[in-house]
Amino acid sequence: MRNNQHSLRIFGIHNIKIGTSSSMDVLETPFPPSKDVFRNDISDQVLKPMLEFISKSESYFFLDVYPFFAWASDPININLDYALFKSKYIRITDLGIGLVYSNLFDQMIDAVYFAMNRLSYPNVPVFIAGWPNSGDSNQIGANINNVVTYNRNFIKKVTKKSAIGTPLRPGVVLQSFLFSLFMDGNG
């Protein structure tokens, strides 16, 4: 990332943000968010210097947030509606600090915020992405109905003024994009 930034500066290009995407497996544990940290094997060697670069260059921590994978890894303990932003009655409380979550997405984002806070980079903005397509028929739940439901509710979440932010950071706009909006040859 430093080399890319240096090359751009050589050519007089200063307005392009440099970053790289990370998956949620950068975190040590998924719950509770208030106790989360980055994985020990990459925290100091990879993530701390990356967050320092991002902070200094005023870029974003690009994060692939897939509530689907969290749900698929533990469908007994994680309700699919909670992952799809459909849970009207499911509330999960982080007893460590009393934050209440109504969807898995907010819970995951706050876990990253807490981990960044622990590395002393609380102000690095997060830029997020969405739900996997239905291309892998071996993954239960990765189907067109869930993709459409998640994307529709995700768009509502990030555009509805009253829902902006997370329980830890209410009102903070979550920069976001959707990608891989395609179907395989069978769909």
TrEMBL record:
<comment type="similarity">
    <text>Belongs to the glycosyl hydrolase 17 family.</text>
</comment>
<dbReference type="InterPro" id="IPR017853">
    <property type="entry name" value="GH"/>
</dbReference>
<dbReference type="GO" id="GO:0005975">
    <property type="term" value="P:carbohydrate metabolic process"/>
</dbReference>
<keyword id="KW-0326">Glycosidase</keyword>
<dbReference type="InterPro" id="IPR000490">
    <property type="entry name" value="Glyco_hydro_17"/>
</dbReference>
<keyword id="KW-0378">Hydrolase</keyword>
<dbReference type="Pfam" id="PF00332">
    <property type="entry name" value="Glyco_hydro_17"/>
</dbReference>
<dbReference type="GO" id="GO:0042973">
    <property type="term" value="F:glucan endo-1,3-beta-D-glucosidase activity"/>
</dbReference>
<dbReference type="InterPro" id="IPR044965">
    <property type="entry name" value="Glyco_hydro_17_plant"/>
</dbReference>
<protein>
    <recommendedName>
        <fullName>glucan endo-1,3-beta-D-glucosidase</fullName>
        <ecNumber>3.2.1.39</ecNumber>
    </recommendedName>
</protein>
